What does this fold into?
Amino acid sequence: MKLVGDFRIIVACALVWALLAAVCLALATVLDAQVPIWLPAGLSVAQFGLLPKRRWLLSAAVLGPVSFAVLFASGASVPYATVFALATLAEGMICAALGLWAMQGNVQLPDGPRQVLGLYGAAFAGSFGYALVMLPVTFSGGGGAITTGLFAHLLGMLTMTSLVLHGRKRLLQPDASDGPKLTNELAWTMAFVATLSIVLLQAESYLLVPILLTGLILATIRLPAPAPALNVLLVAAIATLFSIGGRSPLPNLASDPAEAMLLIQTWLALSLATAVPIASIIARRDDMANQLAMQNAQLEENVTVFGLAEELAEIGRWQLDLTSGKQIYSPVMYELLGMDADLAGEGDDIRDLLQGGGETVFDELERNCRENAAYSFDCRIKPVDGPERILRFSAQNIFDPAGMRKSVFAVAMDVTGQVRREEALDLARGRAVRLAAEAQKLANTDVLTELPNRRCSLGLLERLVDQGHRDNTNLSVLLFDIDHFKKVNDTYGHKAGDDVLLRVASLARREMRGSDLVGRIGGEEFVCLMPGLGPNDARALAERLRAAIAADSGVQGLPPVTVSVGIACLGPNDDAGSLLARADEALYGAKAGGRNQVRRAA
It folds into this structure.
């Protein structure tokens, strides 16, 4: 199913690439217009970037012929169209590979200047790779044509890729809370950019056009991504419209249309080089502001909750200033100590009113005088008029910059009933722990074979994969399936089928090493996780397992069965899912090859 989904993405991207290329070529050839941005470049980069690298060859096999066909249909010769198709693939792969490296493998929008610079470097490298491949067929066009083409592809990658990634992020993480507001602001901003572009591109002095660069940067400050890319595309579209019919997009510039468009491309590239880092910094600032606002709201909520808890849960509060000796007791603390809260006064020292002069409390405070973390202790309080209470204190020492303890803050609550209940609940708690352990075992164990079930096996596989990458150690996964198991059930009955499963599970446990895990992950499908085992040893163990089941499964009246085995060894780019998938592909290869055999994944 994953392959089908990836293939749909590849075909959809190729069709959109063909549409964009046809539009750009029609503008250039039919309408004799200058096209400052080659949009298909960004789409090819986004296509490779969104797909796992194991699909890149398939993507190239689709995009290459499509790009050749589009250019050939536009009137290009076979050699030219062939070189163009190769250049398109080289451009997309180079930029996508370097971009993923700059983004540390994450297919997201950049969130800092460093990642922005990395993506720019990837775009430059991709454009340069395209220019190098195309050099044999474009050399006769002169340096101007090569430079214009390089800029067109660079701008295409920087704008279209940004739009595709932003669209993907919005689909995966929709956030409609500020959608209408942002849409409104974006519409007004683009109207402003369009008006500014029309006025300045047709101005009497082309020296006024750099004002457009300032306008694009100001528009970027107003809005987050993808505003820079949209605004640049808008300016490029207006410049293209002005150039229809072979006209110059800068009519007051004493040069041919191609030179005028090269100048506009330079301004657009400078705009992106300035605007995108600013947008990235603003986005990070907004994220930090949102996080700070959330933390402040959480702090306010915590203070409110603490106040409510103090009243409703009868939690007392006490503070001791060790410099001045001043003490502050909350009214609830007075009640916990068995005294009238109306007698509470600021700075009172009531130790002489406590049982034993508060010796228990202050001994605990002194014992923990150097403790930086919060600490707790229980003490018994005997009010003058009332039964003995057990109070639980939670205290925190406050130190000055020199490391001297300057004050103590503590809260307390009456836990007399709780302590008594805890003693009564010890037996029940022990029973609950035993029941939970049994439930955990049932949740992770296959009922029939008592092997680890699918959930347990896949959970351990994820941990072993992480450990293998972290420690650079071998890990092999073995999947095996009982051949023609349905025939066993149909011929001998389900009871015999269960007995066969038990026999196969027993043989698998017997043949595996003590450190290996054997699990049942499907009806007749089993998995073996073999940490520390390399390809050759894993193959040998798999062959031994296959032979043992073929030889020893048919005992005590059971029908003999065979198994097909697939092996995969942990690679540097594997996660648990891809490793298991490769083993599964090898298993199906063993079945397709005639069953009762072992196949190893490439």
User: Anything to note?
Assistant: Residues 2-289 form one domain. The longest helix spans residues 257-312.
